[in-house]
Design a protein that fits this description.
Elements lengths: L7 E5 L4 H11 L3 E6 L10 E3 L3 H8 L3 H6 L6 E5 L5 E5 L16 E3 H12 L4 E4 L3 E6 L4 E5 L6 E3 L1 E4 L6 H7 L6 E14 L7 E7 L3 E7 L4 E9 L6 H10 L3 H12 L6 H10 L4 E8 L5 E2 L2 E3 L2 H4 L8 H18 L4 H20 L14 H18 L2 H10 L15 H13 L1
Helix pairs in contact: 1-4, 1-10, 2-10, 6-7, 7-8, 10-11
Length: 431
Amino acid sequence: MVVMAAKHVLVSGASVAGPALAYWLVRAGCKVTVVERAPSLRVTGQGLDIRDAARDVVKRMGIFEQMLEKSSHEEGMEFIDNKKRCYARFGVEDESGRGGGMTCDIEILRGEIAKLLFDLTKEDVSYIFNDMVESLEETKEQVKVNFANGTPTTAFDLVVAADGIGSKIRSLAFGNGSTPIKSLHSYCSYFSIPRIETDTMLAQVHHTKNGRVLATRPDNVGLTRACLILTAYDESDKRLVRLEKASKEGVSEQKALIQELFQDAGWESSRILKGMHESDDFYFQNVAQVRLDRWSSGRVAVVGDAAYACSPFAGMGTSMSFIGAYVLAGEISRQLNNIQSALENYDRVLRRYVEGIQKLPPGVPWIVFPQSMLGIKILQAFIRTAAILSRSRLATVFYTLSEYLPSFGPSFELPEYDAFKQYESAQKKIS
């Protein structure tokens, strides 16, 4: 009897999508290597939530309860006006993770997820840090990968880009011109600031004119997480040119520009900006979506933000990473000897759901980031009304009905993959 060698898959990126994919690829019968450009596991980052079918994925991975334990235990979100008064408050959504609420029961730091996934996979997956893919040479049967920092050239049966919205591998395989990144004319800054006595377990959000938002959230390590967002009405806003220029420069230049753009923002702006300058985990991001007409090219595929970044405004980026990883590995498990067909099925199974998530409501994001004080007053009235409804039975009726409206897109039910069940059954017999 001829025993087929396990398919060798290279995954680029050790944040969320990469290790999650590696976990499921092992259960699909693959040999997996993950390469990460950072010198070690990156354990910084802001809070993320887990929603919809992604909750079922992490439950099947056995890490749902650990995520709950490491969650920030945020108690809800309140909105603050320019007189520093709370005008609306929302509680934590129900345990289904499907309510579309402001606060999910799992609000966990990106670094905590990264550590959980690394610990879960490190015994079965080879990790290479401080290196990255330099070039790809594809043949009919394999992809020869040349690395940038000394890892020997190696042939793989499949290469998967899980290296974020600015994916280098996506550019190598698809070409720069074939990657439509849809700008949402918005930039976010994330960082940690010291926690003070008046900070509570509620997230706080403050809107101010010119499309600016300041937000703070609690975490589980004794700090307060801050986020500053600037959203322009359209591409004619001259601030976008300065923000784009800063995005290509260093952290000091980015902090200086954010200081200038937010110093008159009111509320807690002085405290937040002071904390920003002292922070060592500052992250600056252009908010955009990745919209590809295909998620594979030959023996190279994309997953997570590299494939279908939906933006923070959709609130499903991390969840899509888990769901996409599960489906990609599952489809490969069904056709280990026909990778091309498996990749086509990955696209077929998931695309409608992804497109539904990426379809933002009309007017978003600019309608929720008003440029004028009049716009802010209108938004505040809407938020205040929504908060009142959220405390009534009407909200439950609305969320239930909304799931059946076409504009909300289809829900997603995880496919069942025999290979995953067989792997778990074999592991139980061994133990």
